[in-house]
Amino acid sequence: MLKFNLQYFAEEKTEEATPKKKRDARKKGQVAQSKDVGSALILILVMLTIQLTSGWFTDQMIAIYRLSNNLIANTRDLYNFANLQELLTEIVFRSFLIIMPILAVALVAGVLSSYLQVGFLFSLEVIKPKFSKLSPISGFKRLFSVKSLVEMAKAIAKGLVLVYIIYDYLFDRIALIIESFKLDITQFVVLMWDFVINITIRCSIFLLIVAFADLAFKRWQHNKDLRMTKKEIKDEYKQTEGDPMLKGKIREKQRSMAMSRMMQDVPDADVVITNPTHYAVAIVYNMNEGGSPKVLAKGQNLIAQNIKRIATENNVIIVENKPLARALFASAEVGDFIPVDLYQAVAEVLAYVYSIKEKQ
Q1: Closest CA to 188 of 199, 198, 177, 197
Q2: Phi, psi dihedrals of residue 120, rounded to the nearest 5°
Q3: Which of 15, 46, 280, 311 is the right S-S partner for 316, CB 3.0 to 4.6 Å?
Q4: What is the phi/psi pair of residue 138, to 5°?
Q5: Is the entire prediction scored with pTM above 0.70?
Q6: What does the CA dihedral 359, 297, 332, 345 come to, rounded to 10 degrees?
Q7: CA distances from 255 to 151, 249, 250 (A)
Q8: 148-195: per-residue pLDDT in tens?
Q9: Minimal CA–CA distance to 222: which of 20, 12, 33?
Q10: Dihedral angle over CA of 197, 198, 203, 206, nearest 10
Q11: What is the DSSP letter of 75?
Q12: What is the number of other CB atoms lying within 10 angstroms of the CB of residue 294?
């Protein structure tokens, strides 16, 4: 007996995601975002911050170096605990002064990176606990999934390139590095600082290139993952706009009810103006209420015949006036007052009707 894989007959996701699906995915925190953009931006902003305040950073590093020498010298005197504590506190404090601005800039850069990529986004779905993630089997599958292996390969490749960039820069300056140990502390710090800045610039350029490429790939992958089948699009339309067949039936029912109400109002008309076969418009004028004559009912062909039939059964006068019937049908809806430019013609018809009623 032959067996078939029904997946081969499944509809492929070939359609672009609808705006609704994109909004729903965004609410769940599913957006195209590259971590490499954040890494590159953090590195660049931290480098610029240090470069702009290089004098202050150099002074702090020199101060830490001298305090460290004093600390080493004081450790030989085991009984001078007060000096040891004071020196250690000063070293920790100055180290804190160096680290905190860098951490603050890194934090701002991380937030800025996220905002530049996806805009303002706050989603509770991301932080909701998911018990499926606690499963060792699920974790093992995620660890050795194709996506995880690709990310691992990318990280290793980036690391190797960065190591090569640093090695290439330092290898050309190995003699200068050896000679730097003969310099005094101020010159040594300045030289090392220049090394750090140049290496950082080279690494930043590489990371920016990787970041833009990764972001483009992530957006392409994200759009691909959000693709929909034609059936999904139809189902979504039914959920948001309603079933077209059901809406059609509702409109048909509404038209039927409106037609029924219109026909019920025909006996109250003062006159029915006809074409005589194609159009029929029922007019009523209430002198006590004032205002203009009003259209109670109108129709074409079969509906016009039904209006005339009901009018005849209820002794409503029928007047044949082809131009007026066509003009009223085209310019006024059921329940509307007649247009001003037709006042004169309708008034003449009503005067004729009232004269007939007086004779009767």
Answers
A1: 177
A2: -75, 125
A3: 311
A4: -65, -40
A5: no
A6: -10
A7: 61, 10, 9
A8: 777 788 888 888 998 999 898 888 888 887 777 777 767 777 777 788
A9: 33
A10: 130
A11: T
A12: 20
Answer yes or no: are the C-beta atoms of 273 and 283 closer than 8 Å: yes
Q: Residue 341 carries which side chain, given as an amino acid letter?
A: D
Other C-beta atoms within 10 Å of 286: how many?
A: 11
Task: Look up tokens 């101020």; give the residue.
Answer: 186
Query: Tell me, what DSSP letter sits at residue 118?
Result: H
The per-residue pLDDT for range 301-354, each reduced to its tens digit, is 888 888 888 888 888 888 888 888 888 888 888 888 888 888 888 888 888 888
Show the tokens assigned to 56. 């202050």
Sequence-separated (6 or more) residues with CB below 8 Å from residue 296? 262, 265, 266, 268, 269, 282, 283, 284, 334
Tokens 């499963």 found at: 135
Which tokens go with 201?
Answer: 């610039």
Strand partners, 299: 280
Rounded-to-integer distance, Cα 109 and Cα 345, Å: 78
CA distance 360 to 357: 5
User: Are the C-beta atoms of 294 and 336 separated by less than 8 Å?
Assistant: yes
Q: How many Å separate Cα 278 from the centre of its chain?
A: 53
**Do the Cβ atoms of 225 and 101 come closer than 8 Å?**
no
Report the amino acid identity of residue 290: G
Q: What values do phi and psi take at 283, rounded to 5? A: -120, 140
